[in-house]
Structure formats: C-alpha cells, structure tokens
Amino acid sequence: MRAMVIAAVAVVGLCGTTPSLAQTAVQRQGPVYGKDQAEADQPNFLVIVRLPEKAGNRFEFDVEEDSEAQFAAYAAGTQLASCLVASRSDEAERALSNAPLSSKERRSLARLTGKGTSCAGVLPGDPAIARGMVAEALYLERHSSPPPLPAIVEETLVDRFAAEEEKRNEHRPLAEVRLSGASDCLVASDLQTADALLRSRPGSEEEVALIDALFVNAPRCAGDRRPAFISLAYLRAYFASALQRASVAPATAGLFLARE
C-alpha cells in the first residue's frame, strides 16, 4: 500500500481557520467554528486531500501551493487526457459516470490508460486530479466551442443539481463531500465562467481571474473569495469534474443544448 500524505484545509465563509482532523470528524455533531448548525450546514470548503508519494514519472501535486512546475504538469496531464479521450471516449465517459473512488471508476480509469493506447505518459496518482483532467478533456471533446449557456442559472436548478451530486458522493469522506458540494454549487451557478475556465491555460492570469469570478458571482456557495491556501490545480480539477457532471446530469443537461 502506497504512503499517503493527508492535508486538511478549510474555508467557512470568510473564516481562515484550519481545523484538526478531530474537528473534521465531528463536524456534523454540533456547532462548527463558533457558528450555529444551520449556518454550518451550508456549502463550504472543508477538504481532506490525499497526496500520493512520487512514483516513477508521476508529478506529486501540492494541495496548498502552486508552482510553475505544477502548472506545467497540469497542462501536460490535460494533454494526455485529451489524447486518451480522443481514442477511448466511451471508456472515459464510463469512468466519470461511476461514483468517485469506487472500484468501477478505478477499473474504468485503468482500462482508459491501459495497454493498446498510443498516448504517452501516466495520469496523476491523486484521484481528484486525474478525474478532473479526464473530465476537462471529455467536456472539451463534447463541446469544442462554448455551448449557448445561460448567463444566469435559477437557484432551484443549481440546488437540484447539487442535491443529485451529493447523493452520488455521499460515500466519500465528509470533507470531500463538502468540497464537491461547494464546487457543484459554484460551477452550476455560473456555467459560462466555468466553461471559459476549462479553455484557459493552467497557471495563466486568465485562469486566476476566472476562478476568482466563480466565487464572486456565487457567494452563497462558499463565500466571495477564493481560498488562498488551496492550489489552483486542485480547484480547477474539482471545478472541471463539476462542469462535466453538470453537462450530463438530469437537472442541468438541458442548459448545454442549443436554444431556439
């Protein structure tokens, strides 16, 4: 079994407190960070991210800090994912339709990158990053140009989508459920910005501006400021997964279709 590094970071509204793992474990049992339970139950960034140790030519992504090397590794990873999706789109679609961290997802990702592919390289060992890269590649393969997305999405649709996805993710650790939930809310609230994000270059000023805009435009989801201590790579990966899911989920798929 490979070694794992566990990092815990949190954002509750504009609170910058970093909880201990014990705090994380008991979050649903009472008031959190001095807030009452109703407020604590709102979407927030509370995430435990598992970082793999370096293995072979895999790059170890940092959950907290970005670097030029990390931006380059993310760009290379999305190029690899694009190659894999181009040759095995059905397998990529199957992998992302399965529950995250499930054995079915692992098997589909293994088949996607397995023998017979002409694509050079390996996807990152961290499942969140790998899933995000494949989601980004599949989304852009299905939507090579920006679809006619609405400028404003009704909150009822956003909430329906977030509720559907929460059920899909309920088996994951609580912290990951909350991060996914916040991402689903942010992305579904501003589909145009999320779409533009996936068309930006990792590490570019445009990417930073678009990620910041997602928070500003939907403050009810996770506050109005991007958490400075979560790397852009991790935010992009979670947002990519959320956008790809929004494009196929029953509550929101129709928003990606041409309107008369």
Tell me what the structure shows:
The structure is a single chain. With 260 residues, the chain is mainly alpha-helical. The chain has one domain (4-25, 38-256). Helix content is 52%, strand content 6%. It has 12 helices and 2 strands. A two-stranded antiparallel ribbon has the order 1-2. It is globular. The chain starts with a strand and ends in a 14-residue tail after the last helix.
In short:
The protein has 260 residues and is mainly alpha-helical. It contains twelve helices and two strands.
Q: Look at the helices and sheets and give the structural class.
A: mainly alpha
How confident is the prediction overall: mean pLDDT?
Answer: 79
Number of strand elements: 2
Principal-axes geometry comes out as: globular
User: What share of the residues does DSSP label as strand, in percent?
Assistant: 5-15%
Give the ordered list of helices and strands: EHHEHHHHHHHHHH
- Give the CA-CA distance, first to last residue: 54 Å
Please report the number of helical segments: 12
Low-confidence stretches: 1-56
Radius of gyration: 17 Å
What's the story with the biggest beta sheet?
2 strands, antiparallel
- Counted up, domains total 1
> Can you give the helix content as a percent range?
40-55%
Strand order of the largest sheet: 1-2
